[in-house]
């Protein structure tokens, strides 16, 4: 639970010096409680008070950073409709050190090209998990260094042997890999190794009770950069464990479980594996280690991740400027729609499919769809007329025909008057654009 | 040390709905399908009962569809014969239900007569023993005509018929009441309209256990998150005893996922997206999997390869 302003006030020096930029300590406490100020701006707060306040205001799930800009955890809700999910599930592709050098290189190549562009968004895979299956420390070190040389993506180094891990980790410590895994048997060596190299470490135990014990013991070593693995490898059990961990962290602020969680897929067949991973993307995994690295498999998973981690209060928008599809010329048709990303890209996809080079002008409707925008007064004739003026469309085409979505046929008259253009009522749904174009534009 | 887990205690559960009717119940189905009845969030077996596993209804059309070849090829030569198509879905692909979509009724297309539509429904009923879902075309007026005739011709079969919508629910609700069918109540990604529509239908006298919610969904990559959150909220509502949100949910997974570009564009066209075969299958299967996690009870699907994957995912989620 977050502290109230009064609870915070009790910990402050009560000097009312104003050096923090707020006139009184009480006002500063209120600002802290609402997240509008940072404790660092108070020059007189005692170390003891600082620690008490920091731990009370710490997020329910600690943010763990590693590799190349990977952030795990720091989530605040169980359901995206309660606010939003913040840090998209980090996806790591497994590379075994039991593979031949050539196979390792091929796999790294395949991982490096896992970059996708769709609906104006760019997705790229987060990292590589190097797994010590050979049982050989020297081999593990060699493969880890090969992978590190072959990619700048985030790294996870996974071995249950502290010696092997040390050999692989030390030369790569500057890359700040995530390492693992610490278990009840090896945790002292593993956690100390992670601590010495300032990298986060996975704590793995079989079941939640054992995991709780392990976290307590590991924390006692004076380190707190952890990622949890509750050990289950059966999908429905992993779902239950991921849910328990998230609920305890958020609803109970249960500190031992206030860390991100990693999940591992268990299905050997890649398509089954991707469906299994989709469960963990939806339900609370901070990172997933996958086997498949085929583009056709990873794109759907990354798309689901992008969808579920979209802030429900901030629809994705496209830039409200004139867009062109294909090799446009002075006879190209001109469509108007809204700047809600899904609306725009549905229209763009269909316009592209008509094979007629065209202009599309998305109107800034704060990222709402046609009907919602119209109902909210954000898709009005004067606004469209202004946007057309600003876009310079009149100089780009010699015709004066403007195609509007069928749902707003009612604005045709006024829009025609304001612009002097002939308003053509298009289909209601983007799926009707191809047949519309065939009958009206060809 | 043992950790005290958080187990939610819900005051209610998802309503149970039975689809189809056997000969003792006034129909001709060899078995019925029961959906809903869950007293926990999806697949959290530790806090309640997931009473009936989610089911898959495979889509059959009365005219040959314009789906992509990767899907069409899996059906062989049955696509111009709804009865044979349905039989193949049940026998070969293990569909729990058949979803018969009568696109041929469209006045702008084949303009099939209500009697002709009813004949096709009867043929499919004769070909398979599983319960049927029957919906019309894209024309509301025509649908009201055909559904009245179909409901009468299949009286007692307890079909799941659609669609009842906010501005067009009376005629189909009346048909369901008179001829003992169940209806799909569709709302446009809006939980308030969803609830309102259930109230309106219920006020006409149709029991709550004769309604299934279609919240409308988007395909993967095209607004699936809106459906996901609305369904999660509806599921939480039903567990918190909101009777007007407690019906099982049906999702048009095959239709929505397969109209996405990613399910159809070849690798030649979009080399960055990888091979179409697996991508197309996963686009539909993952749309289904996301809807299952949000609380879907009935998935309407097309691609047999995607159906197989989702059947395995359901088995995974229902295993204890």
Automatic annotation (TrEMBL), chain A:
The keyword Transmembrane does not apply. One of its GO terms (molecular function) is iron ion binding. GO terms for biological process: acetyl-CoA catabolic process. 5-methoxybenzimidazolylcob(I)amide binds at residues 337, 343, 367-370, 430. InterPro entries: 4Fe-4S_dom, Ac-CoA_synth_d_su_TIM-brl, ACDS_complex_subunit, AcylCoA_decarb/synth_gsu, Dihydropteroate_synth-like_sf. Residues 1-59 form the 4Fe-4S domain. [4Fe-4S] cluster binds at residues 17, 20, 25, 42. SUPFAM superfamilies: Dihydropteroate synthetase-like (SSF51717). Signal peptide: none annotated. The keyword Iron applies. Keywords: 4Fe-4S, Cobalt, Iron, Iron-sulfur, Metal-binding. NCBIfam families: PRK04165.1. This is Corrinoid/iron-sulfur protein large subunit. It comes from Desulfosporosinus acididurans. The gene is acsC_1.
UniProtKB/TrEMBL annotation, chain B:
Residues 16-252 form the CO dehydrogenase/acetyl-CoA synthase delta subunit TIM barrel domain. InterPro entries: Ac-CoA_synth_d_su_TIM-brl, ACDS_complex_subunit, Dihydropteroate_synth-like_sf. PANTHER family: ACETYL-COA DECARBONYLASE_SYNTHASE COMPLEX SUBUNIT DELTA, PTHR36214. This is Corrinoid/iron-sulfur protein small subunit. It comes from Desulfosporosinus acididurans. The lineage of its organism: Bacteria, Bacillati, Bacillota, Clostridia, Eubacteriales. The gene is acsD.
